[in-house]
Amino acid sequence: MENEVREYRRTRELSQAELADELGVSRQTIIAIESGRYSPSLPLAFRIARFFDVPVEKLFNPSEEVDT
Amino acid sequence: MTRIKHPRLIAPLSTLAVGSSIAVAVGIGYTWTGAIIAEIVVVLESIGYFALTGSKSDVGAIYGQRRDERQGQVLLRASRLAMIVMFAVVFVITLFTLASKGSYWQVDVVGSVGGVSYFIGLLIYGEHDESARGAQRGIMSSEVIAESSDNGVTPPL
């Protein structure tokens, strides 16, 4: 699934490791989400959206679905 | 849920416990020299697992009991692969054992227990259609219909 996580993370000037710590996941998971290889669960997607203070549909674009 | 105090120790200690019991079995059934050699291998393996649990990789997180949701999926997929391979091996061993008129009860036990566990897992973790069950028992209830009518919602046919 395509998403804007990388863009929002860079806007906040956070590293992948720092974002991972904030969200309570591993850095590899942030890498997988940003590259679209992994679609997060609903709770994690909402956690990311809440962290960046944006609606979840602004972060994730389901029309570009890929196998996770 | 109870938090485990030293999660990094689970994999190495489990390996040590399982391996040591095998080493003791080797000692009883064969030789104690073999048992000591087996125990040395088990201890080295446990140390290796402990080192692995400290790494920042997916494998380290899984063995160190600190996996996130994606790593949980990795674990499930790996377990599924292991199960498929194990059943394939059991199948091949069964064929060879039957063809050579050997004793096959051990593989029979492994295959049967694995198969039954699989179906138990489906029952435990699968979602079950409660409304269909209710309808089967004849309680496609008037309460539900009455409640729906009260709310001005047309009940499903």
Order of helices and strands of chain B: HHHHHHH
Beta-strand content bin of chain B = under 5%
Helix content of chain B: over 70%
Largest sheet entry of chain B:
none
Distance between the termini of chain B: 43 Å
Q: How do the strands of the widest beta sheet of chain A line up side by side?
A: 1-2
SSE ordering of chain A: EHHHHHE
Tell me how many strands of chain A there are. Answer: 2
Number of helices of chain A: 5
Q: Average the pLDDT over all residues of chain B and give the rounded result.
A: 85
Most residues in contact, chain pair and counts: A-B, 11 and 9 residues
Distinctive features:
heterodimer, A: 68 residues, mainly alpha, 2 strands, 6% strand, globular, B: 157 residues, 7 helices
Can you give a write-up of this model?
The complex is a heterodimer of chains A (68) and B (157). By secondary structure, chain A is mainly alpha-helical. Chain A is built from 5 helices and 2 strands. The model of chain A has no long low-confidence stretch (mean pLDDT 91). Chain B is built from 7 helices and no strands. Chain B has helices at 10-29, 32-53, 58-63, 69-99, 105-125, 130-136, 142-150. Helices cover 74% and strands 0% of the residues of chain B. Classes of the chains: A mainly alpha (68), B mainly alpha (157). At the A-B interface, helix 3 of A face helix 4 of B.
Short structural summary:
The complex is a heterodimer of chains A (68) and B (157). Chain A is built from 5 helices and 2 strands, in the order βαααααβ.
List the helices and strands and how they pair.
The complex is a heterodimer of chains A (68) and B (157).
Chain A: E1 2-3, H1 5-11, H2 16-23, H3 27-34, H4 42-52, H5 56-59, E2 60-61
Antiparallel strand pairs in A: 1-2
Helix pairs in contact in A: 2-3
Chain B: H1 10-29, H2 32-53, H3 58-63, H4 69-99, H5 105-125, H6 130-136, H7 142-150
